[in-house]
Amino acid sequence: MALTRHLKALALAGTTSTMALIGSAASAVEIEYWQYFFDARVTAMETLIENFEAANDGITVKMTHFPYADYRTKVAASIPAGEGPDVVQLFYGWLNDYVAADLIQPLPADTFPASMIDEEFFPMVQAMKEGDQYWALPTAVRSLALFYNERLLDEAGVEPPETMDELIAAAQAMTKRDGAGNLTQVGMTAGMTAQDHHWWREGLIRQFGGEPYVDDYRTVNYNSEAGLEALNFYASLFTGDDAVTAIGFMDEPQAAFKAGRAGFHIDGSFRIGSLNKTRGLKWGVTELPATADGERSNYSSYWVNAITTKAEGEKYDAAVKFMQYITSDEAMQIWLDTVGELPAKPSVGMTEENANDDTFGPFIRGLEYANTTKFANESGQRQLMVEMVERMTLEGMSAEESLAIAAEAEQAILDGYYK
């Protein structure tokens, strides 16, 4: 208070610069941004915040991040209490939950008109729209691709595969066992806890001629001949005498690949940033393998940013400005370069440089034949896929029986959610 009185006294004495300082101090506002912890994402957001603050004098952004396992709980507890983020990152599949729980508010139509977003963004973001208003927008989107270890491919004398048959043959050539028959190096990683549940749903099932869900993802449709063929193909990777991997090898699929103990690894474009930091690992990436007749399918997803119901007054105005920047072309290019996630706008993603990039290109091209699963409960639905495989590997259950159990359980989740 004493400092304020002193500044006012100087201002009354005609100090113009002091008047500017008083005005700046009076308009200063701090907003909070929350996201889950992923090192490359944190680095990217630090850059975006620095750029935003430099261009918006008087607004500061405080970033907070939590482990993925704790993130949703922290958000759900903080906002109703009037605490926590003003702008929050959430998985696209959580949108309905966040709206129902009154955690976020729609984006202002004058700043984010639906017609403009429909025109400028990839169509997949329209899942964030209700009527003529958007609730959230992404900085980046994701697809899957096949990472490969260049050294292991060279040692085995094989090339990056274009078809599923070539994938199996190359993986077999890179698989190694010790004298007791234990795997010491896998031709390919496997595990529904990572990205394989997406590959199985939106990739393999469709490539075998099926459709994982119908009725706008409200009805399970994979308990079918195509679904069973897809599951049998996936299981062939880790069962039988010709197995090229094992569930749980080095605990996590991405850990095995980073350690140089796996030839192939299916993952999202977000993995690029951390792989670039893995010393001694020489890797490349190619599109997901096609069927023998050239059929391809992929999975796309994204995290979005939204303004929370906590943001009011000047914090709300600052949050809107921040949302404008983190969904801009500049922000998307920074995110691509730092994290490896794909721009949410064709104006950035489909530039000649990005679309033909050796690293980003396979993911960007994968968007052309990708499908986005609309989850009711992403973690719960993923867990059912984990259990489906566990019943086969730990209990010796047939693929047909385990698939039927998973389909029934997932339908119960969907029925409970939509009813």
Count of domains:
2
Helical proportion, percent range: 40-55%
Proportion of beta-strand residues = 15-25%
Biggest pleated sheet: 12 strands, mixed
- What CATH calls the topology of the largest domain is D-Maltodextrin-Binding Protein, domain 2
CATH architectural name of the largest domain: 3-Layer(aba) Sandwich
**Multimerization state:** single chain
Distance between the termini: 56 Å
* Strand runs, count: 16
Structure description:
The protein is an alpha+beta fold and 419 residues long. It has 2 domains: 30-142 and 301-355, Periplasmic binding protein-like II (D-Maltodextrin-Binding Protein, domain 2, 3-Layer(aba) Sandwich); 143-300 and 364-418, D-Maltodextrin-Binding Protein, domain 2 (3-Layer(aba) Sandwich), CATH 3.40.190.10. Helix content is 46%, strand content 19%. It has 19 helices and 16 strands. The strands form 3 sheets. Strands 1, 2, 3, 4, 7, 8, 9, 12, 13, 14, 15 and 16 form a 12-stranded mixed β-sheet that branches. Strands 5-6 form a two-stranded antiparallel ribbon. Strands 10-11 form a two-stranded antiparallel sheet. α3 (39-55) runs antiparallel to α14 and α18 (378-394) runs antiparallel to α19 (399-418). Mean pLDDT is 91; it is low at 1-26.
Which features characterize this protein?
419 residues, 19 helices, 2 domains, alpha+beta, globular, D-Maltodextrin-Binding Protein, domain 2, disordered N terminus, single chain, twelve-stranded mixed sheet, two-stranded antiparallel ribbon
